[in-house]
Amino acid sequence: MNRRTLTALARGAGLLGMAVLGQLVGLVMLVAIALSFLIGLVFVFSPAVRLTRATTRLQRRLAAEWSGVTIDEPYRPAPPPPQRQRDGWYREGRNLYKTPRVPAFNRRLSWLVNDPATWRDFAYLMVSPWSSGLIVGIPLLLAVTGVPQLVDGNLAGLLPLVVALVTAPAVAPWSVHVHGQIAHALLAPTEKARLAQRVSHLARTRIDAVDSQAAELRRIERDLHDGAQARLVAIGMTIGAAEQLIDSDPAAAKALLAKASEASATALRELRQVVRGIHPPVLAERGLGDAVRALALDTPLTSHVTVDLPNRPDAPVESAAYFAVSELLTNAVRHGDATEVWIDISHQGTALRVTVTDDGRGGADPERGTGLRGIERRLAAFDGVLAVNSPVGGPTTAAFELTRALEETIPSLPRWKRTILGLCWGLCWLPLFPQGLVAMVMKLVGSPERSWFLALYLPEPLQWPVIIGMICLGGVMLATGVTLANQAKRAKVDACASS
Amino acid sequence: MRVVIAEDLHLLREGLVALLHAHGFEVVAAVESGPELLTAMLRERPDVAVVDVRLPPTFTDEGLQAALAARREIPGLPVLVLSQHVEQLYARELLADGSGGVGYLLKDRVFNAGQFIDAVRRVADGGTAMDPEVIAKLLASNARSEPVGRLTPREREVLELMAEGRSNAAIGQRLFLSDSAVGKHTANIFTKLELAPSDDDNRRVLAVLTFLNGKQAP
């Protein structure tokens, strides 16, 4: 009995215990349902649901840690708290309330009652002891069946125990896994719930994206209005004045023109700043890798940049990643007192992964820093996630990942394999049919016609071996073709699945 | 002096041709795309090429790539690169082969014809002409490095002008210093940065730029 089996047995026992506990919680929930909907004691419903959810949450965690089955939370997002109206009342439907307590309670109740996940949780708790609980308890229950006989002094009672022990290495890990699968069936979000979650996530990130876009546009408008535009007006006026003066006072006109030329240089400088803020030229010219290198060169930190990208991501993704790195570097310089920074840009499948590590004093908190919040919002529009690890005293590591950022690079078969595939597919019929099977039929029938069947021209003792050989060759070519084609298809499916 | 010009904006190209012509340059080719530029440079082997970074067909860094490719074919071929924006990254790439004869300026510098022509001549003679903005960025990213921190403000000014590629005489003129004073400052700078002194202006500038660039790991 090895370690793995023992772990599986222990986990099985734990899960069985959980199932029994779940059953008790389920009964509490049943009572709560009866109280709420039969005699209207609705206030017991919410705590009961909270208890159920705590239990199923634990079940989900165990499924992930013990059975290796990841189960996402299926719950709908909690309703927003009621908003106080301008007249100081809280409106819920057609009713007005003085305090937010009642409308908040109503919203919460209807959220819990209407969420299918509430009822699926309940169903799971009621059903699990009788399904997955039994399966996971097989070794234990089997061993226990012999106990009454043993108590009677009958040694036959040892038999189930022996069977349980012998089968345990196979049964125990399997049962734990099956338990996870069954839990997944009821505890995982339904397709509908998953879509609903996705939609609400998309709606939120879309609002964020639109908001930040609008803010950007406002900033650009302001920069142009106060900067370059104003300067151009001034230049125009200066040149106009110079025009007036050029005959009467050439020296003054010349001075004015010099001023205009200076102002135009300033305007250009400001325009460059604005352009840099919209879409940095290096990014457009060289892509993310070199743009980040250029960025790193411009910081006062000693920087180490490594880039490993198979191709250029889409422009918006590139831009989001660039500005995120830019913000992280700014943070490192401004708040972290860093002197050295390591930037790593890599890819995994179609995901773009960027890590920025600095040797500053750490203590960055995404909850407080608006900069980090801004990066998160920017990345969220592309389903990106930011993780910051910044213990006080440093070092700070910020990593973000943008899924589906890169085009899928489907690994195609190497050239020689493709050639073989083509040859096999193209030519397998030749040895198989005319030279093999048809020649065999001709031979069997004893037809005098030899046509172009190679084998029939050979001396008699070689004829059968050649025919059989031809059929085998054709068969092997066909099989090779099918295998290689399958290989190519699988590579394609893998590439798609990893995205 | 024979010049090749690459610039995709018609007005600006004509302006450059007229400007260089007026200052006694012979414009042997004025092209508007990267591939044309490369063939023109290899065919004409000009004394200097004035190149815009962003050119058709891709409108990325076509001009820079063509210039670098031409310099790989003809080492030391003088190239003055013009751009709407300056990047340390590009400056490093231009300086990487260490053979001089490169310039990297903002397009705005064309406004000041005298200084621009001066820069073209300097590059044609195998010197360098770096935009003050590049140098400012270089110095900013070196600001925390120890040797640069030890320079006096005056020495920093001299270093800036020297890194732009100016000769001692030009630096003296700019800062209202005598030649011997400039010489003293440059000697101090070289001691503080622990660089081997050199009488040759161009070598000196390259040494300084290499030093400033060397502070950052690639």
TrEMBL record, chain A:
Domain Histidine kinase/HSP90-like ATPase: 316-406
Matching SUPFAM superfamilies: ATPase domain of HSP90 chaperone/DNA topoisomerase II/histidine kinase (SSF55874)
Enzyme Commission designation: 2.7.13.3
Alphabetic keyword roster: ATP-binding, Kinase, Membrane, Nucleotide-binding, Phosphoprotein, Transferase, Transmembrane, Transmembrane helix, Two-component regulatory system
PANTHER family: NITRATE/NITRITE SENSOR PROTEIN NARX-RELATED, NITRATE_NITRITE SENSOR PROTEIN NARQ
Annotated source species: Microtetraspora glauca
Entry protein name: histidine kinase
Catalysed reaction, written as an equation: ATP + protein L-histidine = ADP + protein N-phospho-L-histidine
Keyword Iron-sulfur assigned: no
Upper lineage: Bacteria, Bacillati, Actinomycetota, Actinomycetes, Streptosporangiales
InterPro entries xrefs: HATPase_C_sf, HATPase_dom, Put_sensor_dom, Sensor_HK_TwoCompSys, Sig_transdc_His_kin_sub3_dim/P
Residues passing through the membrane, by range: 32-51, 122-143, 155-176, 420-442, 462-485
Keyword Oxidoreductase in record: no
Gene Ontology molecular function terms on file: kinase activity
Pfam family, one: HisKA_3
TrEMBL record, chain B:
Keyword Metal-binding: no
Ranges of residues in domain HTH luxR-type: 144-214
Keywords: DNA-binding, Phosphoprotein, Transcription, Transcription regulation
Residue positions, PTM 4-aspartylphosphate: D52
Annotated ranges, domain Response regulatory: 2-122
Record has ATP-binding as a keyword: no
InterPro entries attached to this UniProt entry: CheY-like_superfamily, NreC/VraR/RcsB-like_REC, Sig_transdc_resp-reg_C-effctor, Sig_transdc_resp-reg_receiver, Tscrpt_reg_LuxR_C, WalR-like
Pfam families for this protein: GerE, Response_reg
PANTHER family named among the record's database cross-references: TRANSCRIPTIONAL REGULATORY PROTEIN NARL-RELATED, TWO-COMPONENT RESPONSE REGULATOR
Record-given protein name: Response regulator transcription factor
Organism: Microtetraspora glauca
